[in-house]
Amino acid sequence: MPDFRTSVSLGAVILAVMAGMAAARPLPEGRSLEHAAIAGEHLDVSVFKPASCTIRAILIVLAGKERDSATYRDNTIPLARHECSLVFAPNFPLSRFPVQQYQRGGFPVLSQRAAPASLYMKPLEQWARSVAEEPHLPIILIGHSAGAQYLERVEAYVPGEEVMTVIMNPATYVEPETETPVPYGFHNWPEPASLPDLKRYLSRNIAIILGAEDTTPSLPGERVPDAAGQGRNHLERGQWAYAQGREQAERLNVPFGWTITLVPATGHVASKMLASAELQDAVETAIRSASSR
């Protein structure tokens, strides 16, 4: 079995050192395509910069299973204009980042030759701040469906400097306990790190935002045995995960940082979730909270 602690700590150091440098030109207003060099990987990043306002935050948006990052960037533009925030939507192409690397964040580590993709987030945050020439802006992570699964693993195992992470309609969650194996829980996460990391996970600022009509049962090919008990559909799983987290936080006597909100009359549709008042309220709250510190 791989030593997760060694893989994560060493990988984080390597990735931080190899994070891409800032672009030579200023970030243009409007839409643009930038390129980030992370651990030998070159990621295309679809970017949007609103005009005529003082930038308040960086929104890093993770696409669903189609990996259509430019579409996610475009669907986030109204939110970015309202909140005067930069949008960075990194593309993790399926050819290089299959389900185990993207939806599962690269855990469990199957090969020492490939760093877990969830380790890329912190260097991406540093790269985004560098490219934007805004080293102190609060960072908010937003993911839908497969992208939300990726961010679940980031928050559970290798969080970065984000002030809030928005999880929207994922198919699976990291269960807040030590009996379910990685990447659906903390079993096999190296001792003695698992319990402190579990407590940290529960205290993270995680906003679970669910489509109230995202109730279509999973197809047989989409079912994951290790996550079978999380619910029959996306809505049930989100409500179940939140309830489990709240109960576990009370049992362990740690602050519980998660929230849960439903978007009415909405199913598993990224464009509607990204345009929702519920997401806008969560982002505004996070920006205001970060600015008051």
Structural account:
- The protein has helices at residues 4-18, 69-83, 121-132, 146-157, 194-203, 234-252, 270-274, 277-291, and strands at residues 30-38, 41-49, 57-62, 85-90, 139-144, 164-168, 206-211, 259-263.
- Strands 1-2-4-3-5-6-7-8 form an 8-stranded mixed beta sheet, sandwiched between helices.
- It has a single domain (4-291), classed as Rossmann fold (3-Layer(aba) Sandwich), CATH 3.40.50.
- The chain is an alpha/beta fold.
- It has 8 helices and 8 strands.
- Helix content is 35%, strand content 18%.
Layout of strands and helices, then pairs:
Elements (H helix, E strand, L loop, with lengths): L3 H15 L11 E9 L2 E9 L7 E6 L6 H15 L1 E6 L30 H12 L6 E6 L1 H12 L6 E5 L25 H10 L2 E6 L22 H19 L6 E5 L6 H5 L2 H15 L2
Parallel strand pairs: 3-4, 3-5, 5-6, 6-7, 7-8
Antiparallel strand pairs: 1-2, 2-4
